[in-house]
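Consider the tokenized backbone below.
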């Protein structure tokens, strides 16, 4: 099958299959609008550079308004390695009752993944990835993960303790990387029930679709190895220790400059070189300023002040007070 786009010239909103069931293809799904198209391209580039030579990749893009120009840039990634791709045009009207705060960086596109079982109706399994994902290893092993009869394979969230208490759950998972058993999800009519479920629990939804998946499936989820979704922030002191042995890095901070900062060589393999270079320079400048001087909360009692890379601490109510101590 040649590299194709679904719905560029119309369609019914359901993607045809890129594979025969139980075939050899690795099916990967992303969700993006026009604002995240460049990060989508960068994430796909990491998949292509990390694949095994025999890996046969097919990408499905849940399209929330990606421009034709951006689609062409994404298609140009085939110069890195061959792949198949289909863009599935999404209708935001379907999600108009889904709660979303105007003050958050999260968009309606995050809810698109809830429709995957119906949108990819002829697939039995798919890997879902967020756009701020760096893949460092072939996804074949992840694709073949034994889900033990569960609908989802997923990694625990790095804020699990806080979030599970908030929702009164035994576990809490990060939805940035999902292995989805689509046959199982269709058996339980997940997409047919999920919007009523959202309406019922909308007051509890802080992390929106991620909360939905955690509340809906609760413990009926297969926990997979943390290496498949290492949630990281470049500013954390344990960043380099955290990423050792990671197969997938997930840059969870709202500012995606960290993603660009840590993957710059791959940025130049995309058609977004200048945009990424601007973000990189901005990240370097911010890093220098933060190294020179920064004030932040150490805990509820103490402020941490960084001056020329050295940390000092003082009581929060006495920031200007001369009683600064090590």
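A designed sequence for it:
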């Amino acid at each position: 099958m040649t590299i194709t786009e679904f719905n560029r010239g119309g369609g019914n909103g359901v993607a045809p299959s890129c594979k025969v069931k139980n075939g050899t293809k690795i099916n990967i799904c992303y969700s993006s609008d026009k604002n995240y198209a460049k990060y989508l391209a960068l994430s796909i580039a990491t998949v292509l550079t990390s694949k095994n030579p025999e890996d046969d990749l097919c990408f499905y893009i849940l399209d929330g308004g990606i421009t034709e120009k951006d689609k062409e840039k994404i298609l140009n990634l085939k110069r890195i390695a061959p792949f198949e791709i289909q863009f599935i045009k999404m209708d935001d009207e379907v999600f108009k009752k889904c709660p979303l705060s105007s003050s958050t960086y999260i968009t309606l596109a995050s809810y698109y993944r809830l429709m995957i079982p119906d949108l990819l109706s002829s697939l039995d399994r798919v890997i879902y990835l967020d756009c701020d994902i760096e893949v460092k290893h072939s996804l074949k092993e992840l694709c073949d993960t034994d889900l033990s009869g569960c609908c989802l394979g997923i990694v625990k969230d790095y804020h699990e303790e806080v979030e599970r208490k908030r929702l009164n759950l035994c576990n809490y998972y990060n939805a940035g990387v999902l292995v989805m058993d689509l046959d199982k999800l269709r058996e339980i009519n997940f997409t047919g029930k999920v919007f009523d479920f959202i309406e019922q629990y909308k007051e509890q939804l802080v992390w929106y679709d991620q909360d939905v998946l955690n509340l809906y499936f609760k413990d009926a989820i297969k926990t997979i190895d943390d290496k498949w979704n290492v949630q990281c922030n470049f500013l954390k002191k344990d960043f380099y220790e955290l990423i050792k042995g990671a197969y997938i890095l997930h840059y969870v901070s709202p500012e995606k400059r960290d993603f660009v900062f840590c993957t710059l060589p791959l940025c130049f393999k995309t058609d977004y070189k200048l945009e990424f270079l601007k973000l990189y320079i901005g990240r370097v400048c911010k890093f220098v300023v933060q190294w020179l001087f920064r004030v932040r909360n150490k805990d509820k009692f103490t402020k941490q002040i960084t001056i020329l890379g050295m940390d000092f601490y003082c009581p929060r109510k006495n920031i200007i007070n001369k009683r600064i101590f090590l």
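Confidence is low (pLDDT under 50) at residues 1-12, 17-22, 319-326.
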